[in-house]
């Protein structure tokens, strides 16, 4: 299940009670479902199993055609971070 609040402002999301994130997590666990929350900034804190941040570093063009995207992925948990860079080419 995907919970997409990516176009919601950070100030509005910060008003969401932590109990709501726990309820979403518990609902996903009970049904054996993976829950992915798409937010503009980390919101779930200790409710999440992992926090993944994906940033586009550049677009890859061949002439006037988009051929791919170079990105940086950072996976974080409460005790550390791992970073990887990759290119996705069409």
What does the secondary structure layout of this molecule look like, with pairings?
Blueprint: E1 2-4, H1 10-13, H2 18-31, E2 36-38, E3 51-62, E4 65-77, E5 80-89
Parallel strand pairs: 1-2
Antiparallel strand pairs: 3-4, 4-5
Instruction: Give the SSE order as H and E letters.
Output: EHHEEEE
Radius of gyration: 16 Å
Characterize the largest beta sheet: strand count, sense, and whether it forms a barrel: 3 strands, antiparallel
Q: Report the principal-axis shape.
A: elongated
> Strand order across the biggest sheet?
3-4-5
Low-confidence stretches: none
Number of strands: 5
- The structure class reads alpha+beta
Q: What is the number of helical segments per DSSP (H or I, 4+ residues)?
A: 2
Q: State the share of residues found in helices, binned by percent.
A: 10-25%
Distance between the termini: 26 Å
What portion of residues belong to β-strands? over 45%
Total domains: 2
Mean of residue pLDDT values: 86
Q: What does the model show?
A:
With 90 residues, the protein is an alpha+beta fold. It has 2 domains: 1-44, no CATH class; 50-90, no CATH class. Helix content is 20%, strand content 46%. The chain is built from 2 helices and 5 strands; from the N terminus they run E-H-H-E-E-E-E. The strands form 2 sheets. A 3-stranded antiparallel β-sheet has the order 3-4-5, with no helix packed on it. A hairpin with a 2-residue loop joins strand 4 and strand 5. It is elongated, with a radius of gyration of 16 Å.
């Amino acid at each position: 299940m995907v919970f997409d609040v990516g176009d919601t402002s950070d100030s509005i999301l910060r008003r969401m009670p932590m109990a709501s994130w726990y309820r979403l997590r518990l609902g996903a666990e009970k049904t054996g479902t993976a829950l992915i929350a798409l937010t503009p900034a980390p919101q779930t804190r200790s409710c999440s199993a992992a926090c993944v941040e994906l940033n586009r570093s550049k677009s890859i063009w061949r002439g006037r055609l988009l051929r791919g995207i170079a990105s940086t992925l950072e996976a974080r948990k409460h005790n550390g971070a791992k970073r990887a860079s990759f290119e996705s080419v069409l």
